[in-house]
Design a protein that fits this description.
The chain has 123 residues and is α/β, with parallel strands linked by helices. Strand 4, helix 5 and strand 5 form a beta-alpha-beta unit. It starts with a strand and ends with a helix.
Length: 123
């Protein structure tokens, strides 16, 4: 499974590579990283049609994660990829907005990587 992680914090890449080292080595999971909503859109354009899961931070400079979510759900080939929104702020307004825009899940930082790993493996 190919997973696109979108977060403006560059240390997220190292964190995911450490937490999913075994799954990456076995080829079970492949991670691609984008550090802005705009970069994520460009990355999606270059990805061969595959089952893609997108994990996106909500609060990023430039295009927000919610704007990215709206773009993906409106413009990506059908069926659109599964999108899980991630935020440090678990407020109800962000959760409601994400749900209305078509988010498949809403996660709060700090991420529970054990729970996230189970989510990935059950898709």
């Amino acid at each position: 499974m190919k997973i696109l992680v979108v977060d403006d914090e560059k240390d997220v890449k190292l964190l995911f590579e450490q937490r999913f080292r075994k799954e990456i080595r076995s080829g079970e999971l492949t991670f691609v990283f984008a550090f802005s909503g705009e970069e994520a859109i460009q990355t999606l354009k270059t990805m061969v049609q595959q089952a893609v899961l997108i994990l996106s931070d909500i609060n990023m400079p430039g295009m927000s994660g919610l704007e990215l979510l709206e773009h993906i759900k409106k413009n990506h080939v059908k069926p659109p990829p599964m999108v899980m929104m991630i935020t440090a702020y678990g407020d109800e307004e962000n959760r409601k907005s994400a749900k209305q825009l078509g988010a498949d899940a809403f996660l709060t930082k700090p991420l529970d990587f054990k729970l996230l790993k189970n989510e990935f493996l059950n898709l």
